[in-house]
Structure formats: C-alpha cells, structure tokens
Amino acid sequence: MSLLPDLPPPALRCVAGGPTAARLAALDALCLVVPPDADAASLRGLPFASEVGTLLAREKPKPGRCVSMTLPTSRQTLLVAGALREGAEAFERLSLAGEALRAVLARDPARIALATTPTRRDGDAVVEALAAAALAQGFPLPSFVQPPQPRPALAEIDLHAGDGLDLRRLQAGAAASNLARWLTALPPNVLDAAGYRRALGAIARDTGLALQWLGEPALRRLGAGAFLAVAAGNARRDAAGIARLTYRPRGRQGRGVPRIALVGKGILFDTGGTNLKPHRSMLEMHTDMAGSALALGVLLALAQLGAPFEVDCWLAITENCIGPTAYRPQDVVRACNGTTIQVIHTDAEGRMALADTLALAARRAPRFILDFATLTGACVNALTERKSGVFTNHPALGPLLEDAGRRSGERVVCFPMDADYDADLQSKVADVLQCAVEGKGDHILAARFLSRFVPPGVAWAHVDLSAATRSGGLAHVATDITGFGARFALDLLLDQPLLARLEPR
Ligand SMILES: [Zn+2]
C-alpha cells in the first residue's frame, strides 16, 4: 500500500454553453441541477428537454433531492436531475451535489457532464459544487481488500460553466481535501511516525518544498517539554517529532512578503494514555492526526496555486500511548516558551503537543497562525459533527472566519475565549492547568490554554475540527472521514481580506 494517493484525478474540461445531444451520446451520465418547480421555459435549450420536463413534472423533486432516468441516446446516458433553489448557500449546494453524485457514481461512469439549467445566475457556483462532489466521491480511500477492488472508472468531466469557474483552484482544493482524507484513513500501523516522515519526505522531493524534522533530541534541546511529555509513552525514541515544511513564493522573497503558519495536530493513535479511553471512544482514534493531514493538504494547495505569501507548516506528530514511560496526571512539565503545565488528564494530549508547536511557529514571526486539531469532545457536543469550532485571539477576525465557513460550505462557529475563563485553569503548583478537572466548556478552555503559547501580537485562529469525521459523510463528501477544512482554509487565506486586515501598522 502506497502511503500517498497514486490515482491521477479525472480530467476536467470547461465547456461554454449547455451539453449538446451529440456530446451526450458520448457520455455515461449527465448531472443536471434544476430549479425546484422547473418548467418548460427553464429547460429551454437543453437536449431532451421534453423528456426531462416530463420526468420533473411526474416526480417533482423537492429542494435538495434528485430524480433520474435514462436518456434515449445510443449510449443510454444516465440523467440525474437535482433540485436546488437559486441563490442557495454553499452548504446546501454541496449537499445537493453530494446526493446527485452518489446517484451518478453508483454506475461507475467513465465520462460525465455537470450542468445547470441555462438561465441560472448561480450556475458557476453550482457546477463548482458538483465538480467538488465528483472529485471527492471519485477518489478511492485506502483499501486492503483482496483481490484489490477495481479503481473508479471516472476519467473525464465536462463542466458546463462560464468564466467564473477557476479550474486550478477547484483541483487544488479537492486534492488538499482528498490527501487529508487518504492520510487520515490509513491504519495506524501503516501511517506510524516513520511512515508519516517518509511520506513527507516524498512530498518534499516532489514539490521542492523544504522539510525539517525536529526529532526528540532536537526538541529536548529546544525545551519542548509539553510535546515530549506526550511522546514519552512511545516504545521507540524515533516515533515522534515536529515536521516543518516551508513554501516560499517564487520571485517574491524577502522583506514585505507576509508569512503565515499552518499548524496541525498529528496524533497518529490516541489511546488516551494513562487515562485510557474505553473501547468505543478509542476505536476511531487513528483519525486523531486529521488536523496535520489537513494542514499539509492546505500547504500543498497554496504552493500549487502560487499563493503570494510565505507559508511554514508545522505538524506535531506522535502517538499517545499507554505504558510504563507514559506521562501521568500531576506531572509538571515545562514548554519551550518557559510555561510550566500541571497535567490533569493524559487524554488532553492534543493541547500539550500543540503548545510547543504553536510556540515554535510563533518564533518565526508569522503575520497569522492557523491551527487545525481534532481537539475536544466538548466541541462535538456543542456543534455535532456538522460544523467545526473556531477561536481567535483577534476578535475582529471572527466575522472573516465565519464568512469563510459560509462561503466555502465548510461551516464554522466562532466561540468566545474571554480572558476570565483562565480562572478555571489556575494551578497551585504550575503556571497553568492542562485542562479543568470537569469537562465543562473544554473546547473553550483548550483554546485559552493554547493562547498562552501564541504571543498576543501574533494573530491566531484555532480550528477545533469537530466535523473531521461524521458517520455517513458531510455535504459533498460521502465517507465518514470528511476532509473538512480545506475549502474553508483556502477561502479564508485566498479570498478573504485577511492578510490585508493584519497589515503591520
Ligand atoms: Zn486524547
């Protein structure tokens, strides 16, 4: 099994105007989005408009639902028609796209077209959502079934859209999300620290990004006692490290080019440690590295798109094991910024690993730090797995974060993190408690804890990835591992006036 995806994505082709009857005869399926009460006028100009009109009149799909039929082409092309109101929010668009592509891809087609009725004003956004669903659902996750399953046939996608569709962006975003899903789905004995490091090495070689690996000896020299406390339970001393990948925009090096940092939690398996998790809570804990995989995916997308700012990507990679050398409640450890931490619960390992990683990232004076972590059950309790939580030390960024969530369809909710919450983390023997003894508001307390490792002058947003996994998938993604966050991050970093807002005065 390859540690990295090796199936080339389907070829995308932008086609002006609607599909023609001649082209349809060469396609296995057409996915068409129509208004909920589509009439003959809205279908005008489409091939087989009267057949499609009859189908829609008979079955009247509700908004968000699909109907299907076989078109009378020589190839018996499948038509899946989904109903969506004009001007629907991105999440609604992606959810309808997810439904429609499930029906389309169930037939394992090789060539498909994605289109809307000709008069839609949001046609480009709808076709973008359909394409995102096709690229997500056409991407197979790692499988060890024997004999190997045949790979999806999907090879060509026609996109019937206007100039508003950015194909490179679409592909880079899908690749970021798919890479995050792939790595997150790998079994923990395949994606162990050595495997992860090998995969990062291969990526660095392929992309020309620089890779630095801070193993235990280097982290000891740096005084990263919070990260090393989590790593202490590993059987091998080479099973943990903080990876740093760097992207520098071509031709734009030097002063004045802003730098951002991406940070990801990469707990390869989380047993809970000395405070061992019970069976059901531990079962999916190979996905506790989803934040690191997402940070990596976003970095690669930014590099591929030639983002006009520098990016340092920091991945905190270790397992959280049980064993005689594992850290314990009441241990007191010192992080690399000098803060002493009283350990309360060894299953709150994510914030320990991130503490040193954030402090190291902050030393490079980034204008903005964005971290991703499957950090707390409290965030899932608050939001379910439909949305993720965000926190920021610059309250003015809150609306930008929520906007990026709304526009990308990966919805986030900005939680409070007022300083008075620190009273709940007051320790009698150290500078701070790792977490409170009771779990109340743990997502907020975790953010308050992390804020001690980011100097107040550095703008920072923390994403608690409650939507990283969801039974049955989410929106356009059909697998439990959702890859949530890539669309959100690219919207935030490339489309929102974020860096301009953070311009040094
Ligand atoms: Zn944990």
Architecture overview:
The protein is of the alpha/beta class and 505 residues long. The chain folds into 2 domains: 11-165, Leucine Aminopeptidase, subunit E, domain 1 (3-Layer(aba) Sandwich); 171-501, Aminopeptidase (3-Layer(aba) Sandwich), CATH 3.40.630. Helix content is 34%, strand content 19%. It has 17 helices and 17 strands. The strands form 3 sheets. Strands 7-8-10-9-13-17-14-15 form an 8-stranded mixed beta sheet, sandwiched between helices. A 6-stranded mixed beta sheet has the order 1-6-5-2-4-3, sandwiched between helices. Helix 5 links the parallel strand 5 and strand 6 (156-160). Helix 5 (123-137) runs parallel beside helix 6, helix 9 (225-231) packs antiparallel against helix 12 and helix 14 packs across helix 16. The longest helix has 19 residues, at 167-185.
Describe the structure using short key phrases.
505 residues; alpha/beta; Aminopeptidase; 2 domains; eight-stranded mixed sheet; six-stranded mixed sheet; binds zinc ion
Query: What is the residue-mean pLDDT, rounded to a whole number?
Result: 96
Q: What small molecules are bound in this structure?
A: zinc ion
Strands, count: 17
CATH topology of the largest domain: Aminopeptidase
User: Please, what is the oligomeric state?
Assistant: single chain
The named CATH superfamily of the largest domain: Zn peptidases
Q: Helical stretch count?
A: 17
Specify the helix fraction band.
25-40%
Q: Give the CA-CA distance, first to last residue.
A: 51 Å
Topology:
Elements lengths: L10 E5 L5 H4 L4 E6 L5 H4 L5 H11 L6 E5 L7 E6 L6 H16 L5 E6 L6 H15 L18 E5 L6 H19 L7 H15 L2 E5 L1 H7 L2 H7 L9 E7 L11 E12 L8 H4 L7 H15 L5 E11 L11 E3 L5 E3 L6 H15 L4 E6 L3 H7 L4 E5 L5 H11 L3 E3 L17 E2 L8 H10 L7 E6 L21 H10 L2 H4 L4
Parallel strand pairs: 1-6, 2-4, 2-5, 5-6, 9-10, 9-13, 12-16, 13-17, 14-15
Antiparallel strand pairs: 3-4, 7-8, 8-10, 11-12, 14-17
The structure holds zinc ion.
Zinc ion binds next to α12.
